[in-house]
Specification:
This protein starts with a helix and ends with a helix. Helix 2 packs antiparallel against helix 3 and helix 2 crosses helix 4. It is mostly helical and about 90 residues long. The relative contact order is 0.15. Helices cover about 70% and strands about 0% of the residues. The protein is elongated.
Length: about 90
């Protein structure tokens, strides 16, 4: 079995999987991935901002732009709160 063949098989099967209410499992997995990635990114940038102090908020500093970008990613394509609701609904089967 080639290394990529298993991954390809999972991608083809995932859209066909359904949760209890008929919602595709891929939706739940995408919500989990987005929430995890954006929250982890925000924690890293927030720690970096703490390290730089007030200078991190200045427009001249690159951390300021990264902070804005990460915060926008938490909001775009559905807020992380909505992603949490999708995941919890799928886990509870409601």
């Amino acid at each position: 079995m080639r290394p990529n063949s298993r991954r390809r098989g999972c991608c083809c099967i995932a859209p066909r999987l359904r949760s209890a209410e008929g919602e595709p499992a891929a939706t739940r997995l995408a919500a989990q991935a987005k929430r995890l990635a954006t929250d982890a990114g925000f924690e890293v940038v927030n720690g970096c901002l703490q390290l730089h102090g007030g200078y991190g908020y200045l427009r001249d500093h690159p951390i300021e732009r990264v902070l804005r970008d990460v915060r926008v990613h938490q909001i775009l394509e559905g807020t992380n709160e909505i992603m949490r609701m999708i995941v919890s609904r799928a886990m509870l089967g409601n």
